[in-house]
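User: I've been trying to design a sequence by hand for this structure and keep getting stuck. Would you show me what you'd pick, starting by listing the structure so we're on the same page?

Assistant: Good idea, let's start from the same input. This is the structure you sent:
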């Protein structure tokens, strides 16, 4: 069934792309476009696991970096605690330093005796060897602490891979899986996040209307089925004209901090210096 659904979706998407210039081009002199989110992203985990927690609900506003969901990480969290304990414990280093101090004192005493011909050469050689071993033990203690710190950082990175964070300020548009569900990277998104503080309005216009248009120009827009108007800014003008329809794609940025405009809604666009586009706001029947 999944393959069947994916096939239908792909076929539908292909048809929509083919018909886009016809759907959103000029209609009876009125230029119509459909609003889209400024950003939309499907978030999923890069690894398989069981969803332990969802920190959000559909419709919640979230901030960049906020934790949205997490897989079960209890084993990794235990490993992290152990690594942190070893990395932060001073016991091994203190013990190695104490032994080094004791070995140094013993070596100094024997060297003084050796200077007055009162030390056994074998005993002095053994004291030097023990001192060098103590030095190595101090180095090993520091390296063990550094290794534990690296292990802790590695485990933290593994936990982060099992944590979904918001890549931008936005709204949770849909949650696809609930806590307790087993998911893998092939199971599709866990949730969908959108950014609606600014919308994008995509329209297709007759290429003859492109003359005089440039990015940064302001355009007035109005919803076809609601008493909502606004001012957008031309953000992109396609350099390529569709040969079958003779239209070019135009993308308009529409500020939406107050949330008055809705994504997925048809709007009429009044282009600068376009008398035809200023026709009465009547939806086509």
């Amino acid at each position: 069934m999944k393959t069947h659904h994916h096939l239908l979706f792909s076929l539908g998407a292909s048809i929509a792309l083919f018909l886009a210039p016809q759907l959103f081009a000029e209609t009876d002199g009125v230029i119509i476009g459909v609003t889209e989110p400024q950003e939309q992203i499907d978030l999923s985990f890069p690894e398989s696991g069981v969803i332990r927690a969802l920190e959000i609900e559909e419709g919640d506003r979230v901030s960049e970096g906020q934790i949205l969901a997490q897989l079960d990480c209890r084993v990794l969290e235990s490993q992290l605690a152990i690594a942190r304990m070893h990395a932060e414990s001073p016991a091994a280093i203190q013990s190695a330093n104490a032994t080094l101090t004791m070995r140094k004192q013993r070596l100094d005493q024997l060297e003084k005796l050796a200077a007055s011909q009162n030390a056994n050469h074998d005993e002095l050689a053994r004291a030097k060897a023990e001192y060098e071993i103590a030095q190595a033990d101090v180095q090993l203690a520091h390296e063990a602490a550094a290794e534990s710190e690296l292990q802790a950082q590695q485990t933290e990175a593994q936990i982060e891979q099992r944590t979904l964070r918001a890549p931008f300020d936005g709204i949770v548009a849909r949650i696809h899986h609930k806590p307790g569900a087993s998911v893998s990277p092939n199971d599709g998104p866990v949730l969908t996040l959108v950014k609606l503080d600014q919308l994008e309005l995509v329209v297709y216009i007759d290429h003859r209307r492109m003359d005089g248009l440039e990015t940064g120009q302001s355009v007035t827009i109005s919803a076809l089925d609601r008493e909502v108007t606004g001012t957008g800014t031309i953000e992109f003008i396609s350099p390529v004209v569709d040969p079958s329809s003779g239209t070019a794609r135009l993308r308009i940025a529409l500020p939406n901090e107050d949330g008055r405009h809705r994504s997925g809604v048809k709007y009429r666009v009044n282009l600068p210096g376009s008398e035809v586009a200023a026709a009465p706001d009547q939806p086509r029947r």
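That's my pick for every position. To get oriented when you compare it with your attempt: DSSP finds four helices and 13 strands in the chain. The two ends are 37 Å apart (CA to CA).
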